[in-house]
UniProtKB/TrEMBL annotation:
GO molecular function, one term: glycosyltransferase activity
Source domain of life: Bacteria
Name listed for the protein in its UniProt record: Glycosyltransferase family 4 protein
Keyword field: Membrane, Transferase, Transmembrane, Transmembrane helix
Matching InterPro entries: Glyco_trans_1
Keyword Endoplasmic reticulum set for record: no
Keyword Secreted found: no
Residue ranges of the TM segments: 84-106
Domain (Glycosyl transferase family): residue spans on this chain: 180-346
Gene3D superfamilies, per database record: Glycogen Phosphorylase B
Stored PANTHER family: GLYCOSYLTRANSFERASE (PTHR12526)
C-alpha cells in the first residue's frame, strides 16, 4: 500500500542540453538524493531547445516537443497524481506563453503550484495588455520561489511577498580544494566563462582588454564557452581587428577536468553582463569557490553574490573603461586578489554550496506541500 505521508511532487523543469544556468539547477534537483528521498518525485523536461543559440527561436521540432511536454504533463497529472507541481516558469517571450499553457493544463486538475524563477522580465512586460492578462491568470493561487530578495520587485504587481520564498542557487563543492598561492611569474590571467552572447558582456570585455593593452599592462584573457549570437569567427575577427591575438584566447567549450583547470589557472574572473534576464549566474558561484576575485555588474541579484569591494567589484554595464580600471587594480595587486578571493570563497562555503541549496529547497517544498 502506498505511503500517504510521503508527498508527491511533479517537477517540470529544464535540464541539459543545452547547458545554461536553469538547466544545471534542474540537473542538480533531478539528481538530488535529499529531494528524491524526502518526496516521491516525477520529472518532465520543460526545454524545447537543443542548443543555446536555439533558445528563443521557433521551428516545427519545437512545436512537436511542446505537444510532447503537454502529453507527458497530462499523463503525470492523471496517473502520478502529485500533491504539488513545481515548474521553472519563463518570465517573457515565447517561452512564457508556452509555459502558461502548461499552467492552464495543471489548473484543470486543481493541483497546487509553485513557480521557481531563474530569469526576470515580468515588470518590463506588465503594462502590455496581453502579458498583463496572462500574468494575472498565471500568478493566481500560487507560490513563488525567487533567487534573492532584490528580484521581488519584478513580480510584486501580481503576488504578495508573503507568498514568496527565497532560495539562492548553489553549485557542487570541489573536495580538497585549497586556494593556490598567487603566481609569482607569468601574466595575470582573466577568465570569462559563459557562452559567446553579446549581452553577457563579451564585447565590453574585449574592449576593456584593448584599454589595458594601450596602457602597456601585461595580462592574458581567456574566453571559454559555446558560440551564441557571436560566432567564433566573429569573435576572432574582432580580436584581430584590435590586434589582441597575443592577449585574448578563445578555447571553446570546456567541461570536467578541463573546466576545472581553467578556473585553477585564472587569477581574476570577469562577467560584465548586461543580459536583461540575468538573475543569479552560477559561474560566479563557481569562481568564488575557486577563490577568484570577481568583476561583474549589478544586474539581477549579482549584488547579493558579489560583495562590492570585498569579494570583487561591480561596474557599470557596457562601460569598458570602468571595467578596465577595476581589472587593472586587481592585476597590479596580487595581495588584493588573494584577499578578495578568500572572502569570496568563504561566502560561497557559507551560502552557496549545493548542499545548502538542496536543504533550502527541500525545506521550502515541505512548507508548501
Amino acid at each position: 500500500m502506498e505511503d500517504q505521508s510521503v508527498k508527491k511532487v511533479l517537477f517540470i523543469l529544464h535540464y541539459p542540453p543545452p547547458v545554461h544556468g536553469a538547466a544545471m539547477v534542474g540537473k542538480y534537483i533531478r539528481e538530488s538524493q535529499d529531494i528524491n528521498t524526502t518526496f516521491k518525485c516525477d520529472y518532465i523536461n520543460l526545454g524545447t531547445s537543443v542548443s543555446v543559440d536555439d533558445i528563443g527561436k521557433g521551428g516545427w521540432s519545437k512545436v512537436k516537443r511542446f505537444f510532447q511536454i503537454l502529453k507527458e504533463t497530462y499523463r503525470s497529472l492523471k496517473n502520478f497524481r502529485p500533491n504539488l507541481v513545481y515548474i521553472t516558469l519563463t518570465s517573457t517571450g515565447i517561452g512564457f506563453f508556452k509555459d502558461a499553457l502548461v499552467v492552464l493544463l495543471i489548473r484543470l486538475f486543481r493541483i497546487q503550484m509553485v513557480y521557481h524563477f531563474h530569469n526576470k522580465g515580468v515588470s518590463n512586460k506588465q503594462n502590455k495588455w496581453v502579458y498583463n492578462l496572462i500574468y494575472k491568470f498565471v500568478f493566481k493561487k500560487c507560490k513563488v520561489i525567487l533567487l534573492a530578495p532584490p528580484l521581488y520587485s519584478d513580480i510584486q504587481k501580481y503576488i504578495p511577498e508573503s507568498k514568496v520564498y527565497y532560495c539562492p542557487n548553489g553549485v557542487p563543492e570541489i573536495r580538497g580544494f585549497e586556494i593556490k598561492e598567487q603566481k609569482q611569474n607569468g601574466k595575470p590571467q582573466i577568465l570569462f566563462l559563459s557562452n559567446l552572447i553579446e549581452s553577457k558582456g563579451v564585447q565590453t570585455l574585449i574592449d576593456a582588454c584593448k584599454v589595458l593593452k594601450d596602457r602597456s599592462i601585461d595580462f592574458s584573457c581567456v574566453f571559454i564557452g559555446g558560440e551564441g549570437d557571436i560566432s567564433e569567427g566573429q569573435f576572432q575577427s574582432r580580436v584581430e581587428e584590435l590586434q589582441l591575438q597575443n592577449d585574448i584566447f578563445y578555447l571553446g567549450k570546456k567541461y570536467g577536468k578541463d573546466k576545472d583547470e581553467a578556473y585553477r589557472n585564472a587569477d581574476i574572473f570577469a562577467l560584465p553582463t548586461h543580459y536583461d534576464n540575468e538573475c543569479f549566474p552560477l559561474v560566479l558561484l563557481e569562481a568564488m569557490q575557486y577563490g577568484l576575485p570577481i568583476v561583474s555588474t549589478p544586474e539581477g541579484a549579482i549584488a547579493a553574490i558579489v560583495e562590492e569591494g570585498q569579494s570583487g567589484f561591480l561596474v557599470k554595464q557596457k562601460n569598458s573603461e570602468q571595467l578596465a580600471n577595476r581589472l587593472e587594480q586587481l592585476i597590479a595587486s596580487p595581495t588584493l586578489r588573494s584577499e578578495m578571493g578568500v572572502k569570496g570563497r568563504n561566502f560561497y562555503l557559507q551560502e552557496f554550496t549545493l548542499k545548502k541549496f538542496e536543504d533550502n529547497l527541500t525545506g521550502i517544498l515541505k512548507r508548501i506541500v
